[in-house]
Protein backbone atom coordinates (compact mmCIF):
# COMPACT_ATOMS: atom_id res chain seq x y z
CA UNK A 1 0.00 0.00 0.00
CA UNK A 2 1.41 3.42 -0.97
CA UNK A 3 0.82 6.39 1.31
CA UNK A 4 0.05 8.51 -1.73
CA UNK A 5 -2.88 6.31 -2.84
CA UNK A 6 -4.06 5.25 0.63
CA UNK A 7 -7.81 5.05 1.24
CA UNK A 8 -8.44 5.17 5.00
CA UNK A 9 -11.84 3.47 5.07
CA UNK A 10 -15.54 4.03 4.51
CA UNK A 11 -18.38 5.74 6.37
CA UNK A 12 -21.14 3.21 6.92
CA UNK A 13 -24.74 4.17 7.63
CA UNK A 14 -26.06 2.90 10.95
CA UNK A 15 -29.30 3.78 12.67
CA UNK A 16 -29.31 7.61 12.72
CA UNK A 17 -25.52 7.91 12.39
CA UNK A 18 -22.52 6.86 10.29
CA UNK A 19 -19.56 5.00 11.73
CA UNK A 20 -16.10 5.05 10.20
CA UNK A 21 -14.80 1.60 9.23
CA UNK A 22 -11.01 1.74 8.74
CA UNK A 23 -9.17 -0.57 6.37
CA UNK A 24 -6.78 -3.20 7.80
CA UNK A 25 -3.11 -2.17 8.13
CA UNK A 26 -1.24 -5.49 8.23
CA UNK A 27 0.54 -5.32 4.89
CA UNK A 28 3.55 -3.72 3.19
CA UNK A 29 3.74 0.09 3.17
CA UNK A 30 5.58 2.28 0.65
CA UNK A 31 5.91 6.01 0.03
CA UNK A 32 7.51 8.42 -2.39
CA UNK A 33 7.62 11.48 -0.14
CA UNK A 34 11.33 12.17 0.60
CA UNK A 35 10.45 14.22 3.68
CA UNK A 36 9.38 11.06 5.47
CA UNK A 37 12.80 9.49 4.86
CA UNK A 38 14.57 12.56 6.25
CA UNK A 39 12.30 12.71 9.32
CA UNK A 40 12.69 8.97 9.86
CA UNK A 41 16.48 9.24 9.79
CA UNK A 42 16.44 12.17 12.21
CA UNK A 43 14.00 10.46 14.60
CA UNK A 44 15.99 7.22 14.62
CA UNK A 45 19.20 9.11 15.37
CA UNK A 46 17.61 11.05 18.24
CA UNK A 47 16.04 7.88 19.62
CA UNK A 48 19.41 6.11 19.51
CA UNK A 49 21.09 8.96 21.38
CA UNK A 50 18.35 8.91 24.02
CA UNK A 51 18.75 5.17 24.41
CA UNK A 52 22.53 5.55 24.78
CA UNK A 53 21.99 7.99 27.65
CA UNK A 54 19.63 5.59 29.36
CA UNK A 55 22.31 2.90 29.15
CA UNK A 56 25.15 4.98 30.63
CA UNK A 57 23.36 6.94 33.38
CA UNK A 58 24.07 5.24 36.73
CA UNK A 59 20.98 4.00 38.59
CA UNK A 60 18.83 4.95 35.61
CA UNK A 61 15.69 3.37 37.11
CA UNK A 62 15.65 6.11 39.78
CA UNK A 63 15.03 8.68 37.06
CA UNK A 64 12.78 6.55 34.86
CA UNK A 65 10.19 6.66 37.65
CA UNK A 66 9.89 10.42 37.20
CA UNK A 67 9.51 10.00 33.44
CA UNK A 68 6.58 7.70 34.15
CA UNK A 69 5.00 10.21 36.56
CA UNK A 70 5.42 13.00 34.00
CA UNK A 71 3.79 10.85 31.30
CA UNK A 72 0.90 9.87 33.57
CA UNK A 73 0.21 13.47 34.54
CA UNK A 74 0.47 14.82 30.98
CA UNK A 75 -1.46 12.03 29.26
CA UNK A 76 -4.23 12.35 31.85
CA UNK A 77 -4.27 16.14 31.44
CA UNK A 78 -5.05 15.67 27.72
CA UNK A 79 -8.19 13.84 28.89
CA UNK A 80 -9.16 16.69 31.21
CA UNK A 81 -7.71 15.85 34.63
CA UNK A 82 -6.28 18.76 36.61
CA UNK A 83 -3.63 17.06 38.75
CA UNK A 84 -0.26 18.84 38.83
CA UNK A 85 2.97 16.87 38.71
CA UNK A 86 3.74 17.83 42.32
CA UNK A 87 0.30 16.58 43.39
CA UNK A 88 0.82 13.32 41.48
CA UNK A 89 3.81 12.67 43.76
CA UNK A 90 1.88 13.22 47.00
CA UNK A 91 -0.08 10.68 49.01
CA UNK A 92 -3.87 10.65 48.75
CA UNK A 93 -4.22 12.10 52.25
CA UNK A 94 -2.30 15.22 51.14
CA UNK A 95 -4.68 15.84 48.21
CA UNK A 96 -7.74 18.04 48.68
CA UNK A 97 -10.89 15.86 48.65
CA UNK A 98 -12.33 17.54 45.54
CA UNK A 99 -9.15 16.70 43.59
CA UNK A 100 -8.86 13.05 44.56
CA UNK A 101 -10.78 11.62 41.60
CA UNK A 102 -8.31 13.22 39.18
CA UNK A 103 -5.39 12.17 41.41
CA UNK A 104 -6.53 8.52 41.34
CA UNK A 105 -6.68 8.55 37.55
CA UNK A 106 -3.08 9.74 37.36
CA UNK A 107 -1.90 7.22 39.95
CA UNK A 108 -3.71 4.44 38.06
CA UNK A 109 -1.85 5.45 34.91
CA UNK A 110 1.47 5.22 36.77
CA UNK A 111 0.53 1.74 38.00
CA UNK A 112 -0.60 0.76 34.48
CA UNK A 113 2.67 1.88 32.87
CA UNK A 114 4.82 0.10 35.44
CA UNK A 115 2.78 -3.10 35.24
CA UNK A 116 2.78 -3.12 31.43
CA UNK A 117 6.55 -2.59 31.18
CA UNK A 118 7.12 -5.38 33.72
CA UNK A 119 4.76 -7.68 31.77
CA UNK A 120 6.90 -7.28 28.66
CA UNK A 121 9.45 -9.56 30.32
CA UNK A 122 7.04 -12.48 29.92
CA UNK A 123 4.28 -11.27 27.58
CA UNK A 124 4.91 -9.61 24.20
CA UNK A 125 3.09 -6.53 23.02
CA UNK A 126 -0.40 -7.84 22.35
CA UNK A 127 -4.11 -7.18 22.76
CA UNK A 128 -3.98 -9.31 25.89
CA UNK A 129 -1.37 -6.95 27.37
CA UNK A 130 -3.39 -3.87 26.41
CA UNK A 131 -6.50 -5.30 28.04
CA UNK A 132 -4.65 -6.06 31.27
CA UNK A 133 -3.21 -2.55 31.24
CA UNK A 134 -6.63 -1.02 30.60
CA UNK A 135 -8.07 -2.88 33.58
CA UNK A 136 -5.46 -1.29 35.86
CA UNK A 137 -6.02 2.13 34.31
CA UNK A 138 -9.76 2.07 35.01
CA UNK A 139 -9.65 0.53 38.49
CA UNK A 140 -11.77 2.46 40.98
CA UNK A 141 -12.18 5.59 38.82
CA UNK A 142 -14.74 7.16 36.52
CA UNK A 143 -15.48 4.70 33.75
CA UNK A 144 -14.49 1.59 35.73
CA UNK A 145 -17.87 0.02 34.92
CA UNK A 146 -17.45 0.57 31.18
CA UNK A 147 -16.17 -2.92 30.33
CA UNK A 148 -12.85 -2.44 32.11
CA UNK A 149 -10.18 -4.64 30.52
CA UNK A 150 -12.37 -5.68 27.60
CA UNK A 151 -12.97 -4.44 24.09
CA UNK A 152 -16.27 -2.65 23.75
CA UNK A 153 -19.48 -4.35 22.64
CA UNK A 154 -21.40 -1.09 22.20
CA UNK A 155 -20.86 2.03 20.10
CA UNK A 156 -18.78 4.90 21.42
CA UNK A 157 -17.94 8.30 19.95
CA UNK A 158 -15.44 11.16 20.15
CA UNK A 159 -16.54 14.74 20.86
CA UNK A 160 -20.09 15.94 21.31
CA UNK A 161 -22.61 14.76 23.86
CA UNK A 162 -24.06 11.80 21.93
CA UNK A 163 -23.98 9.95 18.61
CA UNK A 164 -26.08 12.65 16.95
CA UNK A 165 -23.56 15.46 17.39
CA UNK A 166 -20.30 13.49 17.69
CA UNK A 167 -17.14 14.78 16.03
CA UNK A 168 -16.12 11.23 15.08
CA UNK A 169 -17.77 7.83 15.42
CA UNK A 170 -15.36 4.84 15.41
CA UNK A 171 -16.20 1.49 13.82
CA UNK A 172 -19.19 -0.57 14.87
CA UNK A 173 -18.36 -2.82 17.84
CA UNK A 174 -18.89 -5.97 15.75
CA UNK A 175 -15.74 -5.11 13.78
CA UNK A 176 -13.47 -4.27 16.70
CA UNK A 177 -12.08 -7.79 17.40
CA UNK A 178 -11.09 -8.34 13.76
CA UNK A 179 -9.53 -4.88 13.41
CA UNK A 180 -7.56 -5.24 16.65
CA UNK A 181 -6.47 -8.72 15.60
CA UNK A 182 -5.16 -7.27 12.34
CA UNK A 183 -3.32 -4.54 14.25
CA UNK A 184 -1.66 -7.09 16.55
CA UNK A 185 -0.50 -9.10 13.53
CA UNK A 186 0.94 -5.90 12.04
CA UNK A 187 3.11 -5.34 15.14
CA UNK A 188 4.72 -8.76 14.71
CA UNK A 189 4.69 -9.29 10.93
CA UNK A 190 8.31 -10.07 10.02
CA UNK A 191 7.41 -10.70 6.38
CA UNK A 192 7.12 -6.97 5.69
CA UNK A 193 9.92 -4.40 5.80
CA UNK A 194 8.19 -1.41 7.33
CA UNK A 195 10.54 0.61 9.60
CA UNK A 196 9.55 0.43 13.25
CA UNK A 197 8.78 4.13 13.68
CA UNK A 198 6.59 4.19 10.57
CA UNK A 199 4.88 1.02 11.78
CA UNK A 200 4.34 2.70 15.14
CA UNK A 201 2.90 5.86 13.56
CA UNK A 202 0.39 3.76 11.61
CA UNK A 203 -0.37 1.69 14.72
CA UNK A 204 -1.15 4.72 16.88
CA UNK A 205 -3.43 6.15 14.21
CA UNK A 206 -5.19 2.81 13.75
CA UNK A 207 -5.65 2.23 17.48
CA UNK A 208 -7.15 5.68 18.03
CA UNK A 209 -9.41 5.21 15.01
CA UNK A 210 -10.67 1.81 16.17
CA UNK A 211 -11.13 3.19 19.71
CA UNK A 212 -11.50 -0.38 21.01
CA UNK A 213 -12.39 0.44 24.63
CA UNK A 214 -15.41 2.36 25.87
CA UNK A 215 -13.14 4.70 27.83
CA UNK A 216 -9.40 5.31 28.24
CA UNK A 217 -8.48 4.93 24.55
CA UNK A 218 -6.36 8.07 24.42
CA UNK A 219 -4.20 7.03 27.35
CA UNK A 220 -3.80 3.41 26.22
CA UNK A 221 -3.06 4.54 22.66
CA UNK A 222 -0.30 6.85 23.86
CA UNK A 223 1.07 4.17 26.19
CA UNK A 224 1.24 1.83 23.20
CA UNK A 225 4.16 3.94 21.90
CA UNK A 226 6.76 3.24 24.66
CA UNK A 227 5.51 -0.35 24.97
CA UNK A 228 6.28 -0.92 21.29
CA UNK A 229 9.72 0.74 21.56
CA UNK A 230 10.72 -1.36 24.58
CA UNK A 231 9.21 -4.55 23.14
CA UNK A 232 11.40 -4.27 20.04
CA UNK A 233 14.54 -3.07 21.81
CA UNK A 234 14.56 0.41 20.31
CA UNK A 235 14.72 1.58 23.91
CA UNK A 236 16.24 -0.37 26.78
CA UNK A 237 14.15 1.64 29.24
CA UNK A 238 10.75 3.37 28.84
CA UNK A 239 12.29 6.82 28.52
CA UNK A 240 10.27 8.28 25.62
CA UNK A 241 6.66 9.42 25.95
CA UNK A 242 4.90 11.54 23.33
CA UNK A 243 2.07 12.85 25.52
CA UNK A 244 3.96 16.08 26.21
CA UNK A 245 4.36 16.70 22.46
CA UNK A 246 0.73 15.81 21.78
CA UNK A 247 -0.47 18.02 24.65
CA UNK A 248 1.60 21.00 23.49
CA UNK A 249 0.26 20.52 19.95
CA UNK A 250 -3.17 19.23 20.90
CA UNK A 251 -5.14 20.82 18.07
CA UNK A 252 -2.58 19.73 15.47
CA UNK A 253 -2.58 16.21 16.94
CA UNK A 254 -6.33 15.75 16.64
CA UNK A 255 -6.41 17.47 13.26
CA UNK A 256 -3.68 15.20 11.89
CA UNK A 257 -5.59 12.08 12.96
CA UNK A 258 -8.82 13.38 11.44
CA UNK A 259 -7.09 14.31 8.17
CA UNK A 260 -6.32 10.64 7.64
CA UNK A 261 -9.94 9.62 8.18
CA UNK A 262 -11.49 12.46 6.18
CA UNK A 263 -8.88 13.13 3.47
CA UNK A 264 -6.77 9.92 3.43
CA UNK A 265 -3.75 12.09 4.30
CA UNK A 266 -1.55 9.52 5.99
CA UNK A 267 1.60 11.36 4.88
CA UNK A 268 0.75 14.38 7.04
CA UNK A 269 0.13 12.17 10.08
CA UNK A 270 3.38 10.19 9.67
CA UNK A 271 5.35 13.43 9.28
CA UNK A 272 3.72 14.84 12.43
CA UNK A 273 4.41 11.65 14.39
CA UNK A 274 8.08 11.39 13.32
CA UNK A 275 8.61 15.06 14.14
CA UNK A 276 7.24 14.35 17.62
CA UNK A 277 9.50 11.34 18.15
CA UNK A 278 12.61 13.24 17.06
CA UNK A 279 11.87 16.34 19.12
CA UNK A 280 10.81 14.41 22.22
CA UNK A 281 13.85 12.12 22.10
CA UNK A 282 16.17 15.13 21.78
CA UNK A 283 14.46 16.84 24.71
CA UNK A 284 14.68 13.62 26.75
CA UNK A 285 18.40 13.35 26.08
CA UNK A 286 18.85 16.93 27.31
CA UNK A 287 16.89 16.15 30.48
CA UNK A 288 19.21 13.22 31.21
CA UNK A 289 22.22 15.49 30.69
CA UNK A 290 20.78 18.05 33.13
CA UNK A 291 19.98 15.29 35.63
CA UNK A 292 23.62 14.19 35.62
CA UNK A 293 24.80 17.78 36.16
CA UNK A 294 22.34 18.33 39.01
CA UNK A 295 23.21 15.00 40.57
CA UNK A 296 26.90 15.91 40.67
CA UNK A 297 26.12 19.27 42.29
CA UNK A 298 23.78 18.07 45.03
CA UNK A 299 25.87 15.03 45.93
CA UNK A 300 28.90 17.30 46.27
CA UNK A 301 26.84 19.65 48.46
CA UNK A 302 25.83 16.93 50.94
CA UNK A 303 29.45 15.89 51.46
CA UNK A 304 29.73 18.90 53.80
CA UNK A 305 27.27 17.27 56.21
CA UNK A 306 29.99 15.05 57.66
CA UNK A 307 28.60 11.93 59.33
CA UNK A 308 25.10 12.80 58.14
CA UNK A 309 26.25 12.67 54.51
CA UNK A 310 25.52 8.93 54.25
CA UNK A 311 21.88 9.42 55.19
CA UNK A 312 21.71 12.48 52.95
CA UNK A 313 22.88 10.49 49.93
CA UNK A 314 20.25 7.85 50.66
CA UNK A 315 17.67 10.62 50.89
CA UNK A 316 18.78 11.91 47.48
CA UNK A 317 18.16 8.47 45.97
CA UNK A 318 14.65 8.64 47.39
CA UNK A 319 14.18 12.15 45.97
CA UNK A 320 15.22 11.12 42.46
CA UNK A 321 12.33 8.64 42.48
CA UNK A 322 9.91 10.78 44.48
CA UNK A 323 10.86 14.47 44.52
CA UNK A 324 7.96 15.43 46.81
CA UNK A 325 8.24 13.81 50.24
CA UNK A 326 7.07 14.06 53.83
CA UNK A 327 9.17 13.47 56.93
CA UNK A 328 7.39 10.11 57.27
CA UNK A 329 8.51 9.14 53.74
CA UNK A 330 12.12 9.83 54.67
CA UNK A 331 11.77 8.03 57.99
CA UNK A 332 10.34 4.89 56.37
CA UNK A 333 12.57 4.82 53.28
CA UNK A 334 15.80 5.26 55.24
CA UNK A 335 14.69 3.27 58.32
CA UNK A 336 15.62 6.13 60.65
CA UNK A 337 13.94 7.73 63.64
CA UNK A 338 11.53 10.64 63.29
CA UNK A 339 14.00 13.15 64.83
CA UNK A 340 16.72 11.96 62.43
CA UNK A 341 14.40 12.29 59.43
CA UNK A 342 13.36 15.81 60.45
CA UNK A 343 16.96 16.85 61.05
CA UNK A 344 17.92 15.51 57.63
CA UNK A 345 15.13 17.48 55.98
CA UNK A 346 16.31 20.64 57.75
CA UNK A 347 19.83 20.00 56.42
CA UNK A 348 18.54 19.58 52.88
CA UNK A 349 16.42 22.74 53.23
CA UNK A 350 19.48 24.69 54.41
CA UNK A 351 21.43 23.46 51.39
CA UNK A 352 18.65 24.61 49.06
CA UNK A 353 17.85 21.07 47.93
CA UNK A 354 14.39 20.84 49.53
CA UNK A 355 11.63 23.43 49.92
CA UNK A 356 8.49 23.13 52.04
CA UNK A 357 5.48 23.54 49.74
CA UNK A 358 2.35 23.31 51.91
CA UNK A 359 2.85 26.23 54.32
CA UNK A 360 1.25 24.09 57.03
CA UNK A 361 2.40 22.97 60.45
CA UNK A 362 0.94 19.49 59.98
CA UNK A 363 1.14 17.21 56.97
CA UNK A 364 4.08 19.09 55.52
CA UNK A 365 5.50 18.17 52.12
CA UNK A 366 8.92 19.05 50.75
CA UNK A 367 9.88 19.38 47.08
CA UNK A 368 13.20 18.81 45.33
CA UNK A 369 12.49 21.88 43.21
CA UNK A 370 15.47 21.94 40.87
CA UNK A 371 14.87 18.33 39.90
CA UNK A 372 11.12 18.75 39.49
CA UNK A 373 11.62 21.71 37.15
CA UNK A 374 13.51 19.48 34.71
CA UNK A 375 10.25 17.64 34.07
CA UNK A 376 7.90 20.60 33.75
CA UNK A 377 9.87 22.90 31.44
TrEMBL record:
Entry's Gene Ontology molecular function annotations: AMPylase activity; ATP binding; magnesium ion binding; protein homodimerization activity
InterPro entries for this protein: Fic/DOC_N, Fido, Fido-like_dom_sf, Fido_containing, HTH_DNA-bd, SoFic-like, WH_DNA-bd_sf
Subunit structure: Homodimer.
SUPFAM superfamilies membership: Fic-like, Winged helix' DNA-binding domain
Gene3D superfamilies from the UniProt entry: Fido-like domain
Catalytic activity: L-threonyl-[protein] + ATP = 3-O-(5'-adenylyl)-L-threonyl-[protein] + diphosphate; L-tyrosyl-[protein] + ATP = O-(5'-adenylyl)-L-tyrosyl-[protein] + diphosphate
Protein role: Adenylyltransferase that mediates the addition of adenosine 5'-monophosphate (AMP) to specific residues of target proteins.
Catalytic residue positions: 211
This protein's UniProt keywords: ATP-binding, Nucleotide-binding, Nucleotidyltransferase, Transferase
Domain Fido residue range list: 125-275
Record protein name field: Protein adenylyltransferase
Binding site for ATP: 79, 211, 215-222, 253-254
The organism's place on the tree of life at top rank: Bacteria
Enzyme Commission code(s) on record: 2.7.7.108
PANTHER family recorded: FIDO DOMAIN-CONTAINING PROTEIN, FIDO DOMAIN-CONTAINING PROTEIN DDB_G0283145
Amino acid sequence: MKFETFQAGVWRQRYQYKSFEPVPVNHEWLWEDPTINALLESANRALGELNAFSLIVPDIDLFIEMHVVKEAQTSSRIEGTQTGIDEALMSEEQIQPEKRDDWREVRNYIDAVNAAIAELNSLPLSNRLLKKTHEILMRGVRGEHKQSGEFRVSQNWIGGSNLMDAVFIPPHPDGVPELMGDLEKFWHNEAITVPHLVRLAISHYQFETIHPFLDGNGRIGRLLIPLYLVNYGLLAKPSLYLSDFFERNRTSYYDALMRVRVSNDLIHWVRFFLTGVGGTATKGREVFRQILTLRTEVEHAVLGLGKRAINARQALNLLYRKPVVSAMDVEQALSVSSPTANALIRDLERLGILREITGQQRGRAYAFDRYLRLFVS
